[in-house]
Amino acid sequence: MPHRFRIDGGWTIGAHQTQYWNWNFFTDHLPNTGPNQGPIVFRAVPKGLSQGGNNTVRNELVTYDFAMCRGGPGDDHAPEVFYEFKIRNDSSVDLPFNIEEVIFSDLPLNQ
User: Fold this and answer.
1) How many angstroms separate the CA atoms of 97 and 90, rounded?
2) How many Å apart are CA 46 and CA 52, to the nearest integer?
3) pLDDT in tens, 61-97
4) Partner of 74 at 20 to 30 A CA spacing, among 46, 50, 94, 105?
5) pLDDT score at 1
6) DSSP code string of 6-62
7) Residue ranges covered by each domain of the chain
8) How far is CA 102 from CA 16, 81, 94, in A?
9) What is the pTM of this model?
10) pLDDT at residue 30 is higher than 70
């Protein structure tokens, strides 16, 4: 069964800005698993008004360029898996947001 998490890290992205993210599970992962949590999906979720969001205009966050990566020689925790993605704010105001992740760790790998 997939696991869905919404993480409030107090993050904000400026109007018309792009942020570059990386995420890993080197030390914080589900029981009996390791850093490779795939398949996994990340997305930025604008906060609602009751969560301190800015709902004075349309809120539009785009999560894109998702990549599953492995550390190379000299990288911290190499050769463990980590994930990279970008978040773009297409809104005209700064937006506080959460990160939502959905982990499909129970899917069988068919080769």
Assistant:
1) 13
2) 10
3) 999 999 988 888 888 777 888 899 999 999 999 999 9
4) 105
5) 78
6) EEEEEEEE-TT-EEEEEE--SS---TT--S---SEEEEEEEPPGGGT---SS---EE
7) 3-103
8) 26, 17, 25
9) 0.85
10) no
**Residue 91 has which token pair?**
């809104």
In single-letter form, the type of residue at position 16 comes to H
Q: What is the pLDDT of residue 36?
A: 75
Report pLDDT for 84.
94
* 72, 55 Cβ separation under 8 angstroms: no
